[in-house]
TrEMBL record:
Record InterPro entries: Acyl_CoA_acyltransferase (IPR016181), GNAT_dom (IPR000182)
Name of the molecule in the record: Acetyltransferase
Top-level taxonomy: Bacteria, Bacillati, Actinomycetota, Actinomycetes, Kitasatosporales
Gene Ontology MF: a single term: acyltransferase activity, transferring groups other than amino-acyl groups
Pfam (any one): Acetyltransf_1
Length: 180
């Protein structure tokens, strides 16, 4: 992978090892999604993206087609977040299509853990670039991505995800530097 390894310190634990993210929280496990997670995955997605959640059939088929590219945070009863990342068929680019942490679990490093694990998995592959879109006003996500080394191309892509849905495109591992 063209992404410099030093940017992604490998997590000090196996991804399926339980960890506690906040005082009083049940231990969480980060693991690959299963079909049985679909109701919880839908719930989390609807909670985090109430205005534009994935329709049932889209999440269902994301699991069918690339379930190995969905990591979930599970406390044994509920899911508290997920990341979905999909590589283009030429293996050149991976898009992070969705990253979500439940509102009551934010600010505890979970978003970063999900991203680091996705990047750790991608490091073993021949992916040249990791890309994602983010709303220009989404300061928390932009900061997270920047601290992981993602950079923008310096412009807002108007209507990128539909009318009024402007997005920044952030890239990690491009041949040339972006604009942080
Ligand atoms: C973006 C999101 C996934 C971050 O998850 P999180 O678990 O709260 O993030 P973390 O605790 O791992 O924080 C990682 C970094 O993000 C940045 N960050 C997180 N919350 C922030 C905030 N409120 N303001 C500014 N920066 C913030 C910081 O750089 C932070 O690093 P630090 O803790 O070392 O300062 C979460 O806020 C979320 O689900 N938001 C709604 C959905 C969304 O916007 N998804 C991304 C779409 S592109």
């Amino acid at each position: 992978m063209a992404v410099p390894e030093e940017r992604f310190p490998v997590l000090g634990h196996r991804s399926d090892q339980a960890f506690v993210a906040g005082v009083g929280d049940r231990p969480l496990t980060m693991r690959g999604v299963t079909e049985a997670d679909l109701p919880e995955l839908l719930r989390v997605d609807r909670e985090v993206f109430p205005e534009e959640p994935y329709p049932y059939f889209v999440l269902r088929q994301h699991i069918d087609v690339h379930g190995d590219r969905i990591l979930v945070l599970d406390d044994g009863e509920c899911l508290h977040g997920y990341v979905l990342f999909v590589t283009t068929t030429d293996g050149y680019v991976c898009w992070v299509l969705s990253l979500a942490v439940s509102a009551d679990r934010r600010g505890r490093g979970l978003g970063r853990r999900l991203m680091l694990e996705a990047l750790r998995q991608l490091r073993r592959e021949r992916v040249h670039e990791v890309r994602l879109t983010v709303e220009p006003a989404n300061a928390a996500a932009i900061m997270l991505y920047r601290t992981l080394g993602f950079a923008t191309d310096g412009r807002v892509h108007r209507d990128y995800l539909g009318p009024g849905e402007d997005r920044l495109i952030m890239t990690l591992g491009a041949a040339g530097p972006g604009t942080a």
